[in-house]
Amino acid sequence: QAPAPVSPTGRDTGAPPDARAQDGAYLTTAQGVRLYDTAHSLKAGARGPVLLQDHHLREKIMHFDHERIPERVVHARGTGAHGVFQSYGNAAPVTRAAFLAEGAETRVFVRFSTVQGSRGSADTVRDTRGFAVKFYTEEGNFDLVGNNIPVFFIQDAIKFPDVVHAVKPEPVREIPQAQSAHDTFWDFVSIHTEAQHHTMWLMSGRGIPHTYRTMEGFGVNTFRLVAHDGATTLVKFFWKPRLGTHSLVWEEAQLIAGADPDFHRRDLYDAIEAGALPQWELGIQTFPDTEDQMFHGIDLLDPTKFVPEELAPVQPVGLLTLTGTPTNFFAEVEQVAFHPGHLVPGIDVSNDPLLQGRLFSYLDTQLTRLGGPNFPQIPVNRPHVPVNDMLRDGFHQDAVHVGNASHYKPNSIDGGCPFTIGADGGGYVEVPEPVAASVKERRAPESFDDHFSQARMFWLSMTPLEQEQIVQAYTFELGKCYEQAVKERQLLALANIDPELCRLVAQGLGLPAPEATIPLADDVVVSPSLSMIGKAWPT
Ligand code: HEM
């Protein structure tokens, strides 16, 4: 195999080699015919008109006309890097995943992103950030598709189109909601009050991270680990930056968005090229896999809830180091396809209804975004292990499959091909789970009903400086709403979180502060680990 391409400073980027790209000393057509001129079209005389028979002109313009693919429907704006993950081995008792075994080293590709903006939007806007990691493990690809905020807007994936419509540019003026005219965003989060917890994180410094290098990551949804003996444990994943967690302040974020809209991607690229390799520790919180899947009264299947580190410490299980910048942004950052259902033996999904919807969505969107069903063959998506599937033909099929009966299994003709091999041979086996006695119920469990106490926990866990910034953020963003009723409904939600927070924001907006309509949670755990002040991960 040819060596992997290297970054401008000569580091190995880990990008799969592709011998067909830009091979040979001469410029050619796509058919490999050498060109003698690519700057003049074929004309009748020197002054034209241009001749239709100019194949090079038609091929060159045709290809250019089709250079764009659809941007991601969410997380369109992002950047990425190659790296390596080194396992400490201490997760081995709870998971049989080979990449978490002692001494295992695994190549990764990481993509950081904003959620709401288009591909050309600014980096330092107030938004959630994506933190997606593809591990090319010896058992196939595992994707940890997380965010920089540990809770999500909604509890059920069926609302995802609604929340995304509410934050994307509104249909009349095409103005993005999360950044300027804010009515639909605040309308959504004040009606769907489960979004209040995520919104509170967004109004804090977490919504304007300083750099990608200083950002925590969270797998958000609860997953299930499976040990060698079949024992299961519920788990939440964390990324802890070695440099600590830091944010911008709002004035910086706005100035930088104007002066250098590429600030975050430039920072990541420059840091890696300068040899200041960014590092994160992968951490896990583990919980007993009980029948009710609750922990200290927190429903582990509710993705708007978070388990404070004071109740379940985060245990570091490995180290991620980003070692190489992309060789080609389109080939790697734009074409990478993450999916929370890309799992390896030892890791399984839970019944979190948000996660369950995600399992459908990513594959579905990539079918359109990447032009057909063969995107796993794109170099950045290829597993670093042999692939022997029964997927055939289709648009952009790159593989030349051999044999007359390798495309169905089992068969009695192509005897050399392995059948499925079961768990003993390293096969992926799902964990069987009991289901409720009644099926087909369109409702959430009662344990999903509390929408305010964890937002209150976050607010009470902040230092005075962080609280001041949160008040300013709510006041600034709500101040952009045209609809009075939306502002008033959001103030009511704040009253149900904390009366003082509500009073300060109402004062800033010049509106009366409403009374809470539900009793305030008086037993919340104040969690100093949620504050970013002085927060550095011990190494
Ligand atoms: C993309 C995270 C919920 C649908 C992404 C990306 C991340 C992410 C990091 C960007 C991947 C990349 O860099 O290419 C999350 C997290 C969620 C969540 C942490 C909540 C726990 C959802 C839900 C849906 C969804 C509920 C739909 C039901 C999508 C889609 C994309 C995407 C369609 C674009 C994928 C592509 O074009 O390749 N998500 N997401 N996400 N997400 Fe989610």
TrEMBL record:
Its EC number is 1.11.1.6. Its cofactor is heme. It comes from the Bacteria. One of its GO terms (molecular function) is catalase activity. Keywords: Heme, Hydrogen peroxide, Iron, Metal-binding, Oxidoreductase, Peroxidase. Residues 28-417 form the Catalase core domain. Belongs to the catalase family. HPII subfamily. Decomposes hydrogen peroxide into water and oxygen; serves to protect cells from the toxic effects of hydrogen peroxide. This is Catalase. It comes from Georgenia wutianyii. The chain holds residues 74 to 612 of 776 of the full protein.
